[in-house]
Amino acid sequence: MKPPTAAAAGGGKGGAVDPSLPRFRCQECRRALVVVGVDSYADRLPANAASGNHASSVQGSVMGASRMDNSYVVLSRQNRSQGPGIPPRPPSAAAPHTEPQQPTRAIEGSYIVLPPPAASIYKTPASEGGGAQLTPPGVNSSSPSPGNNSGFHSSVTVLKRAFEIASSQTQVEQPLCLECMRVLSDKMDKEIEDVNADIKAYETSLQRLEQEPYNILSETDFQKEKQKIEEEEKKLKTTIEEAERLYSEVSSEMKDLEIKSKQFEELEERYWHEFNSFQFQLTSHQEERDAVFAKIEVSQVHLELLKRTNVLNDAFYISHDGVIGTINNFRLGRLSNVEVEWDEINAAWGQAALLLHTMAQYFAPKFQYRIKIHPMGSYPRVTDIHNNTYELFGPVNLFWSTRFDKAMTWFLTCLQEFAEFAISMDKENNVPPEKSLKLPYKIDGDKVGSHTIVLSFNKNENWTKALKYMLCNLKWVLYWFIGNTSFAPPSGPGHTQSLKNKS
Question: Whose CA is closest to 496, among 469, 456, 459, 465?
Answer without folding.
Answer: 469
